[in-house]
Each structure stands twice: as structure tokens, then as C-alpha cells.
């Protein structure tokens, strides 16, 4: 985000500090099981380009590349971007690109910078979006802005595989934040078709959230397809 809103700047500083301090409990060391189970529902060609917002150093990008897709992530933290390539024994080429530092190796590119600085030109060849950790990372005041910008920059008929969490928000301070299904519907319904693929109660499998005081935790997997403009 390029504006000087103090709340926006505070949120950016928060994530940069988390990466600098290696406070990355949100990072999954394996491939997300919902990605493995439901990616086929997007019915993409192998050579399609997939966009991963707020990608961190996710191993899911490696799996997507193994399926034949070109992968394009965006990540605020240079520490996270560098870690992705170094931890996976990849030597990236890097250059300045608009407001971003562009890192790329093995057809996996990470644009290091602010998601809100992305343009439709940056996304012109994207066929799908994989969002496991972006929408749930944002507080309510930024979620609508995120969705509005995403829908502005991706092409029509783009498929989005979205994974969200829902829990009593008063029981835990996010991130990750609770994003119930009715909010997803409100955010996307005017601009995308929405299909609920899966919904599971997963508190028993997540002791770290039990320790934080949650009484309920639900994960939803949602397929969206942006409408023609």
C-alpha cells in the first residue's frame, strides 16, 4: 500500500517484524492437504500461470510448479522471499520491476513488495489464484480492500481456490482472523461465482489454537470464478 494511513503502515510493519524475528508459526512445512485434494477442480491447463498472494515462503508454490504451472507470488518481506529460494536450493535471478523487486528461478517468481501496488498488467496472463494465507491474514477493514483490488487486477474467468478459517473472533486476536462463509459471500458474490467445496471442524487437530483459547475452529475450502466484466 502506498498511502500513509497509520493503520496500514502499522500492519505492514507488523508482518515485516514477524519475518525478521522468525515468528512464522503460520508457515506450513508440508503441502496443504486441501490444495492436494481440490486443485483438480479448477481444471487448469498445465502451462497456466497461478498467482499466490502474500505467499511467504510457502512450499505450496513448489507443488504448483510440479504440476506444470508457472507460479507468481507477491510478498511484502524480502526475508521471506530470500528464504524461499535459499531453503529450496534455488538460485534466483532478480531485478527491479515497477514498484517490486522481482525474484525468479525455475518459473517461480516472487514479486517482493506491496500487493496493493500490483496492476492488471502484472496479472494479465494469470489463470488462477491460490489463497491459503492472504484473506485470513487481514483485519476486517482491509479484507474488502484486498478483495476489491484482487478482482480489479485478475482477468475475467479467473479461478480462485480460497481457504478460510472461522472461529469466535472474540476468543482470539488474529491473525489468522476469522472469515466466515457469509463474509466470503458478501465480498465476492457480485463479481464471482461461489462454490463451497469442503467444510470441516478442525480444532481437535490444531492444539496450538486450543492453547490460544478457541472453543471452535472450522476450515472452509471455496472455489470462486470471476465473472466476465
The CA-CA distance between the termini, in Å, is 25 Å
Mean pLDDT: 91
Sheet bearing the most strands, described? 9 strands, mixed
- Figure out the total of helices: 7
- Seen as an oligomer or otherwise, the chain set is single chain
Helix content: 25-40%
Strand-residue proportion:
25-35%
Query: What Rg is obtained from the alpha carbons, in whole angstroms?
Result: 17 Å
| Secondary structural class | alpha/beta
Q: Note poorly predicted spans.
A: none
Strand ordering within the main sheet = 3-4-5-2-1-6-7-9-8
Please write the string of helix (H) and strand (E) elements. Answer: HHEHEHEEEEHEHEHE
Shape estimate? globular
Count of DSSP E strands? 9
Layout of strands and helices, then pairs:
Elements: H1 6-20, H2 33-38, E1 49-53, H3 60-66, E2 70-75, H4 78-87, E3 93-97, E4 100-105, E5 108-112, E6 126-131, H5 140-153, E7 159-166, H6 181-188, E8 192-201, H7 207-211, E9 218-226
